[in-house]
Write a structure and sequence with these properties.
15 helices, about 35% helix
Length: about 350
């Protein structure tokens, strides 16, 4: 029986996080690592970097874990392959396996947010011998299969265009974002944050009017409480340097993933799992049926939580709550290293 994770001892200084790169199928992956103990791999979503886990790294380290947040291929300081198909889900899962091996470990718990939740789930499906447990933030688990994604997205929104469809054409979204990366990111983060998102009677920022842009619907007069000027500078600086194509190429592989993962059609995720969502996040409301299906699709689910009045950026909007839920779950699924 696993022992509860020890609480952080204020008398004990947690070793500072360190940056490193490791070899992977992508070429090079940038990691930020903190703590010792069982490995917990943290996978970010769009449009973020390892930095989205800045509040989790020290908390997990203090609780007795080796917390590692990576820049997914195409982001930050990781390699950015030029081919669109290089961002298919099977390739990203191989990157995660390579990280575990490069760190000298055989297994890891994997936790993902947004696209990272999908990447974590598929990594666990394809490599159950490596990923012993999986935590999903914001995006519920839905097994591979069903209709072709592009067909589903094309039917959404009526005379409006769903943002995933908008992202499909190479260069189109880049032309909107890259002339003002910082302003676009500020608006996008605000559009999906619990304290700044548009009201229900305002135009939905997940859709684009014909001939318009996504940013037309972003809030312009408010900033999320979790997003400081320094945070925004950090994110903007990375995407100004790398461009947006690597990040957007993940969306451009959804039909390819649908074909690649056909052999996993309907597959449950059988490792011990965790789900955390926000009640104001469209990911949890649109995918409510997926959450309802958890008894079948996540048969080893340890706990599932919806945070009231929380939007999409869970671990940044509500870091203390998320840290507690993560460490409580990790104490069940992975024995922490006792602190001395």
């Amino acid at each position: 029986m696993s022992q509860p994770a020890p609480s952080a001892d204020p008398r004990h200084r947690v070793v500072a996080a360190r940056h490193r790169t490791v070899d992977a199928p992508a070429g090079r992956l940038h990691l930020v690592e903190q703590g010792t103990g069982p490995l917990v791999l943290l996978v970010h979503g769009f449009p973020e970097t390892w930095y989205s886990w800045r509040r989790q790294l020290p908390a997990l380290a203090a609780a007795g874990y080796r917390a590692v947040a990576l820049d997914v291929r195409g982001y930050g300081r990781s390699s950015k392959p030029s081919a669109i198909e290089a961002y298919r889900m099977r390739a990203l899962a191989q990157d995660n396996v390579a990280v575990v091996r490069a760190l000298g470990e055989e297994t890891a718990v994997i936790v993902g947010h947004d696209w990272g939740a999908n990447i974590a789930a598929v990594s666990a499906l394809l490599h159950p011998e490596v990923f012993s447990a999986v935590g999903l933030l914001s995006v519920p688990y839905a097994p591979p299969g069903g209709p072709r994604p592009s067909d589903v997205f094309a039917r959404m929104g009526g005379d409006q265009e769903f943002y995933v469809s908008y992202f499909q054409e190479p260069g189109r979204a880049e032309a909107e974002i890259e002339p003002d990366v910082r302003g676009w990111l500020a608006g996008f983060y605000a559009a999906l944050s619990g304290d700044t998102m548009p009201a229900r009677d305002e135009p939905d920022p997940h859709f684009v009017s014909r001939g318009g842009t996504l940013r037309d619907r972003f809030p312009r007069d408010r900033r999320p409480s979790w997003l400081t000027e320094a945070d925004l500078d950090t994110y903007a600086g990375e995407f100004e340097r790398t461009g947006m194509t690597g990040a957007l190429n993940r969306y451009r592989n959804m039909d390819r993933d649908w074909e690649d993962l056909a052999d996993l059609d309907g597959a449950p995720l059988t490792q011990p799992s965790l789900f955390i969502g926000g009640t104001l996040d469209a990911s949890t409301t649109w995918m409510a049926d997926a959450i309802d299906a958890y008894p079948a699709t996540l048969p080893a689910l340890v706990s599932s939580h919806l945070l009231d009045d929380c939007g999409h950026w869970l671990q940044q909007e509500r870091p203390e709550e998320v840290n507690k839920l993560l460490t409580d779950w990790l104490a069940v699924v992975s024995r922490p290293t006792p602190r001395r």
